[in-house]
Design brief:
The protein is α/β, with parallel strands linked by helices. Helix content is about 35%, strand content about 25%. The structure holds adenosine-5'-diphosphate and magnesium ion.
């Protein structure tokens, strides 16, 4: 469903500060793939996700979604195809709005309907049902401001919001890294459940090697702007923590 062909990206081109960040990335993601993406800081993981989402454009190469060339399509025009969750729990939700309003906005992204409609009866029930699946009691707090919630609660809502509009691809960039261990493990479980239930293709960046090994059907390691390892299916299952750690060196 996603194909990257010969992606190159540099920053500060033609200056002394020029850095070549992506050096010819070729990658095909299939429907239902759940990829865990690892690699040292600076390997180019976030830049790659930015290029997939359209927040950055490559210097060379092509991005295809379902065979359609979207290389030059701006981010807002790909928005309906791609859901994103960032490391910072504050990024995904609007603090001055209520839980219900945030969720309604996310629903509206998928359907071209007015905001008023979006808070109508049917939608309210959908939002309540959706919040119930979190088992965090948030379905009773729909009118509470999101700014009052913990990081873990906000990140849980952000994942719901990112998948509500039924995107084709979910991009998760170290989305548990800023959370305490309990919240992080809750969000990891939630991620597995939602990706499993919706069948959305996903790319999850993580520094947690146990999560990278246990989650998903495919593990990719980036190193210096290139793909150093792409282990699928059984090959991924056989991969051990020690082997993966050794590859970092
Ligand atoms: N906007 C930018 N301008 C200049 N350099 C950047 C910019 N964004 C990222 N970089 C550099 O690109 C490299 C890769 O960054 P990034 O994609 O964020 O790596 P990762 O997510 O794997 O840690 C780093 O050396 C970083 O400093
Ligand atoms: Mg990053």
């Amino acid at each position: 469903m996603l194909e990257l062909i010969g992606i190159h990206k540099s920053f500060n081109r033609g200056t002394v500060d020029e850095v070549q960040v992506l050096k010819g990335i070729n990658l095909k993601i299939n429907d239902g793939d759940f990829v865990t993406l690892v690699g040292n800081n600076g390997a180019g993981k976030t830049t790659l996700l930015n290029i997939i989402a359209g927040s950055l454009f490559p210097d060379e190469g092509k991005v295809l979604i379902d065979g359609v060339d979207v290389t030059n399509l701006p981010e807002y025009k790909r928005g309906r195809l791609i859901g994103r969750v960032f490391q910072d729990p504050l990024m995904g939700t609007a603090p001055s709005m209520t839980i219900n309003e945030n969720m309604a906005l996310a629903l509206k992204r998928g359907k071209r309907l007015g905001f008023k409609w979006a808070l109508g009866g049917n939608t309210k029930a959908m939002i309540k049902d959706s919040l119930e699946t979190l088992s965090l009691g948030l379905e009773e707090r729909g009118r509470a401001g999101v700014g009052l919630l913990s990081g873990g609660q906000r990140q849980a809502i952000t994942i719901l919001m990112a998948t509500m509009a039924e995107p084709k691809l979910l991009l998760l960039d170290e989305h548990t890294a800023a959370l305490d261990p309990r919240a992080a493990s809750l969000i990891s479980e939630l991620t597995e459940r939602i990706v499993g239930e919706t069948g959305v293709a996903a790319i999850m960046v993580t520094h947690n090697l146990s999560s990278a090994l246990s989650m998903g059907n495919r593990l990719i390691m980036m190193e210096g702007g290139m793909i150093a390892l792409d282990a699928k299916g059984d090959e991924k299952k056989r991969l051990t923590h020690e082997e993966l750690l050794a590859m970092y060196v």
